[in-house]
Amino acid sequence: MPAGSAIPKKWLPPGADWPDPGPAPAIYPNQRITVRFTHGRHVVDQKLPCTYCHIHADKSVLASDDLLPKKHDLCIDCHAIDEAEPEKDESPVARCDGCHLGTKKDDKGKIVVQKLSMPTANLKMNHKVHVQKGIKCAECHGEVGQLELATRDQLPRMKGCLGCHQGGDAGGLGKSSAKSECKTCHLTEKDGTLKQMFPTGVLMPPKWLKGANHSADFIERHKKVAGADSGFCGSCHTESYCVACHDGKVKPHSVHPNDWLNMHAIAARFDQPKCASCHSTQNFCLTCHTRVGITQSGPPGVSAAGLFHPDAKTWAGPKRVPGHHSYEAQKNISACISCHVERDCVVCHGTTGVGGAGANPHGPSFLNKCDTMFAKNPRPCFVCHDPDDPKLKPCR
What we know:
This protein is mainly α. It has a domain at 204-246. It is 29% helix and 2% strand. It is built from 17 helices and four strands. The chain has helices at 39-45, 50-53, 96-99, 127-132, 138-141, 158-161, 218-228, 230-233, 239-246, 260-270, 281-292, 312-316, 325-331, 333-337, 342-349, 370-376, 379-384, and strands spanning 104-105, 111-112, 197-198, 201-202. It has a two-stranded antiparallel ribbon. A two-stranded antiparallel sheet has the order 3-4. It starts with 38 loop residues before the first helix and ends in a 12-residue tail after the last helix. 11% of the residues are buried. Residues 170-175 have low confidence and may be disordered.
């Protein structure tokens, strides 16, 4: 098959997509191949085994092992190469430019060949173990014998690897004997997490792997992935990475869409997303709501004053209906405290001993459970009641 042609899917390594974008540069850095080589002629026509040229492949235990032939050591078995006669015509081809692309002569007339570049894969790879397991080269590299030039497109794909690597270890996907724990194949940092940053790219999970592709909406989706398998996430992320956001130390703006300032009120009423995951309502929300004047303690004369609540009869009348402040407070107290402080409630609900009007906020069955609540935390009671208030006696 001519070099540069689209490789049919059946000749690609197992697990390759179609159309095939090629392997990830973060794992397999781009190569610069400056030789002309027909694998089909050597593998199929000459029936040479892969180890004839890749002589130490079956003994290799590291991805950094150089498995290419050394200079012309093996080529001269068939090609009458003579470096003293670089333009000698022979069959099979023996002249330099027959195999080396971009050859040129220097000032002294000496043939100069272009260097090839085949960077080490950012992986752990033990060929020896795979060979001992009886795994054939084509099971990882595809049908190389059908190609003219084998490139990085023939390097193993993760989806194909997981055909065997399904061991039931941490982060595993099944019960095969070959481990599927990420660090089995991927490089790790000192803390045990996967190394993600490489000069050639960033290691990211693919879409097909548990739906964990880090697309723009992953900040919304990640809870499902993490909930299904937190150990899988822990392959790359430490607990402190998660806590930084979930404790509110880091507040990524990307969690909200554009124009969120105008839209957030509706989402806050439903508490979806959960505002308190990142924001302290009394500090974050109250300060802004006070500044723009929609709170009782806001600056006088602002246009927003009084626009949030319904009319006084509905909001604070004697009849409890939808829209009444007691109804709304029980439904979502977080919305209330984004504008109000405790003192706002005490004005009406506090007993006369603390300067209030004594309006009872409790339902008819409250006395049946107030003793448990008081024993658990009496502080909320003292917001409206004086500590010596006789009305607290049934709850003590």
